[in-house]
Design brief:
Keywords: Calcium, Calcium channel, Calcium transport, Disulfide bond, Glycoprotein, Ion channel, Ion transport, Membrane, Metal-binding, Signal, Transmembrane, Transmembrane helix, Transport, Voltage-gated channel. It is found in: Membrane. By secondary structure, this protein is α+β, with helices and mostly antiparallel strands. The chain has 36 helices and 44 strands.
Length: 1272
Amino acid sequence: MARLTWARSRLCLSVLLVFICWAPDVNLVAGETINYNLVHSWADRLGLELFSLGDFITRRKELLENFKQEGAKVVPRQGGAIVESMAKEVEMMMDLKVSAVRRIMDTAENTALSHQNDLADKMFSYYNAKEMAEPGEPTPPPPTTPPDMDDQIGEPLIYVPPKVLVLEPRPEFHNTSVNFSVSSVHVPVNVFDRASDVIKAIQWSENLDQIFRDNYKNDPSLSWQFFGSSTGFMRQFPASKWKKDVPVDLYDCRFRSWYMEAATSPKDIIILLDKSGSMLGQRLDIAKHVVNTILDTLGTNDFVNILTFDNKVTPLVHCFEDQLIQANLGNIRELKEKIETIKPQSIANYTAALTYAFEIFETARLNSRGALCNQAIMIVGDGAPETNEEVFRFYNWRDPLYRPVRVFTYLIGKEVANWDDIRWMACENQGYYVHLSDTAEVREMVLNYIPVMARPLVLGRHDHPVIWTQVYADLEDTKLSDHLWELKQCEEQKEDVLEYRRVQDAMLEPSQMRQRAYQRTKETWDQPVDSDVYQFMTTVSMPIYDRRENANITEEVLINEALWELQTRETRIANILGVAGTDVPITEIKKLLSPYMLGVNGYAFIVTNNGYVLFHPDFRPIFQGYILKPAYNSVDMIEVELLDDDRIARDFNPVLMTIRDSIINQSTGSKWMLVKNHFDEMKRVIRVKRQYYWTAIKNTPFTLVITYPEKYGVNRVEPPIEQDIHRTHISGGKTIRSFFDGKRWKIHPDWLYCKQTNKTFRTPETELLYFVDRMSEPGWHWPSSRSAMPPEHAAAIYSNNSSTGRYSSINEKERYYCDRQLMQSLVFDARVTKGFFDKSNYDEKSVSASSPIAVLMGLLPRHEFKQRFGINVVFLATQSGLTRWHEIHTNAAEQPGAGESFSQQHKRAIDEIWYKRAVDQYFVHQESFVYSVPFDAAESGSEIIVTASNAIFYNESSKSAPVAVVGFQFQYSAFYKLFHNITGNACSIDDKDCYILDNNGFIVMSTQKHETGRFFGEINGAIMKRLVEEKVYKRVIVYDYQAVCFELPKPNDNNASNMVLSPLFNLLRMSKWLLHSALWYIVQLLQLAPGVIANFDNSFLNLSLPETKQDPAEENINSKNGWLKYLTLHRTRLKACDMQRNLYTLYNEKDNVVYNMTAHACERPFVVLPIPNSNLVLLVIDQLCPRDVSLVLTVNPQTMNYPYETNESSCYKNVHEFHRVRPASCINRHINESSIKLCGKGSRIYLNLILLLIGLILNRLFNVGCIFNINN
């Protein structure tokens, strides 16, 4: 009987092999017209073979049957209830953070008040974040010689040995080395830490360590806690060492959004920049620095504009005329770039400038534009000729006790005499006056306006506004993006020169130059959504007030306009001590949003009061893989939710605008919309109808939005009640742990299944198994919520319910939390799929399959099966985030490590692209697989892997929902061999080209392997255009409103002037240059500035080229430097802009007539047919017909052009400004503020005797010269 069975098997196998190899007998002859019927048979056979292979190897029907047998239920997805539940979870978590910050604030105010009479100890030792030692680092030795004397100040130099602290890396702080016993202090480079006010604040703030520790004890999920002092330092807990991987430490907490927005209520600021002829040289440099620093202090809730004035007033940016613009990163960058183009000329008309500014404020109030809270005019100039009292009296003094617009004045220049008028403007308008004579003092002096604007807050005492910031990259400065881009360009320039020295003129071939340019442009399109380069977060903060009402101050007072005298007096004060805050990482918020509840292609995002997204699946803040975009955190929700309405760029649909208004107004609602969702590096697109639900996160400026596709998102699958973890009856003495045997499984690494707050685990799978074991133990209970209740809230509740008033804190409970619904679903999926890929199952061959290819598979030995079909791995993923896989080996022996590449790259289950595409394909053809190859398949140089996936939908009572996706990966060479067996040599001859394209127009298989993975329009644009015209493919335009462009900098002639300089002035300039040069050489000779040259970084100027000897002819060629014009990169700067992509998708009509059309000579030199049971089409082209090779269609981005002279997207955005909601808190006035008389110190003019004599001599010489000329 066995022999008979074996004989039948061999006969069946022989027949099948002959059947498969039959195709070569029907080869086409060169030059023959494309045979439609033959191509149709190819497509049908290829579809059948591929589907049969996938159906057999994935056992998808058996998996679906398993879910039915286990009693899975299809239930409706209640979007309104889901969004309310998620918002409540986030609200509780955020309340915890606010609670911690409030305790820091209260402790700081009390501590500062109790230590107000302490003396500053300049030898006080503290944990300096820049000097602490990490584990393994040597301790710096103590000084061996006594400190020298500082000749300039006449006092001993202060040296305090750095304190040593043991630091240990902690995963909850992104593996940063920390110490939980103390806090560390960061001091900016522009702040002297031994100054009396600074060191005194460092002293008393050390007492905050206890409250930091208590907060962390109450809430172990807390991230960094900190106190930012108004003196400049920042105390941070837990203690950590400041990173030194940046060239310059630019960090100053007072310029961070969490500090600025908490220290003052929202601001409308107009900067008046004097550009008269006297603003030349250093004065102009200082003025620019002042303006840039003011701009750095503004946030997204502030509004600003810059007016330049000489004899007339001009807006710095033309399209910002007569209005206030939001101070987001894009607008601030635009203003900063325009500052560099200023050219001083003429004389200054302060009256016209002030009038213009006040009228803008008046218009803003009437039109309800801007922040409508604090308003201020910042005057930057070298002196005003008069007080302009009439202007102020008309616009600003209508209320005797209140000045609606503050005036801050910045007097520029060393030798200034008319300082009193410009100081009067500030003092009489509740502002502050500053005199600046050097760029080094600009940052500190500019910040003087913050305490003045904070006075109404401080005088109110009890009102501490809670501030939530826009998303930002922790510790990073946007200036670093420009620096990194410059470094990138320098590296590319260096690479080009070195490569030229190696290959010489071969590098200058046009094809090589085009390829090099394309590769570098392609790198700029790298915009990862998830990246570990930066830690994105929001911060909650609140101001800390000095509770003193009066204080003694010492200042210089001008006596009789002749003598300066130091005087000490008691005066009324309202000082801000600083800001307390804590970070909330975006990743922690995402974990609370239960993404599994939204299903595949569902997602949640949060919108701020300004309409900007806090996070979103299409939020792409990085380009080039590691550089922050210029305007990365001002992405509006309507710029990422793209309606499918075929409107032009930035012509947003009124329906979408209405939804946006409802969201930022923190209403609760729902709506469905047709949208375009791009994915897979923005090269694919789907058009889908989505349902949206939104509701407010209470006590925050945020609104939570969830959305899911209407086709398959309205239902979900859940386990039956009897499959509850505690009710599950496991026969044979097995436990839940047995469902997770082996190592071939992963869970979604970003989802929150269970979390042990006081315990860390090596992998998510290890943590899961820990909890699976605990669930099997007696006494297990599910936590009621993921987030603990704020201690003060819990105290109030428990004090009402307990006679003792004692309440249980998070520290007294088990420090864990679990998502019960997700865990139930995961255990159910693990039970259903357990043993699904056991090796024994694949050894049991069956010849009862429904297709010839399946019969063949059942008969083939394992090694022949692997060799013939090239299958590497079979996998499945479920809605609960579980992924399982099985490797197909050439022998029965286990191969350690096989399949690890798949598990590392594809462990995110429903978030994987093959999962999403399979679910979408289900509604095109239920019995079909989605096939794909990498876009860079032809460039990788390694074996190309084809991925195939199929969605499994579970149906119950006319309701269906996706429950899992199965798939497999196989070698491209086996795919090509199968195709060749079917088509024979017909696609190998010169006059025929055969392509297999996917549903987005990308080449999955071609007779030319180097074309695999590329977009077909780049290979044959003429045929792709015909396919679009004949409605095989549809072009879908997608706008990228987060793009980055690169523009050449304009010539910098900002120090030029149209003034005619006298010969004497030129002589003085030359003398000054000679004097500076002489002093510099003297300093070098005397070695008074050691290390200046040594520290000059010219690593990018010195290319370290190898020395090579060249023959005379070669030297002659190189002497002309002809190659430089081809290899020299043109330096560019980053620019936020909009781009357009033309993407393509197949028409999904079942009876598309185009598939019945035959080839007709060169009028239609191709046949295109769908490949059944797949997302593919087969395209056969007659190559003998001429075509337009210059026509290229691409999916690469193209820059948008807007109707403005400068073509600035910021101008276009400003014209189409969107509605926003102002912050709830606005404290901009207090009745007692008029009693505070501190408004800045007067200027002193120091006369140098030598300079005075030189001036007199030059004046006498000038007069003699004039008399001589007159006499002649």
